[in-house]
Amino acid sequence: MITSPFLVARDRYERAIEGWVDNTHDDAFTHTVAVSDDDRSIELSAVCTPSPDYEVREARARVPPSWTGSAG
Length: 72
Hints:
With 72 residues, the chain is mostly beta strands. The chain has strands at 16-22, 29-36, 41-48, 56-62. The radius of gyration is 16 Å and the shape is elongated.
């Protein structure tokens, strides 16, 4: 039987993913994705140029303040 550590002490597991793109620069876009479940959350964003280069100018990850404590 295949088991998952995400299902220990629960009968289901759900992860939410939300993404969006902003034109925050004259020549680049900011792509952001937020991934969260009942235990943790993270937000990733990257500033990238459009096609054909797709150059990544900046990238960062952040843990939202409400998720910096330990899950309990």
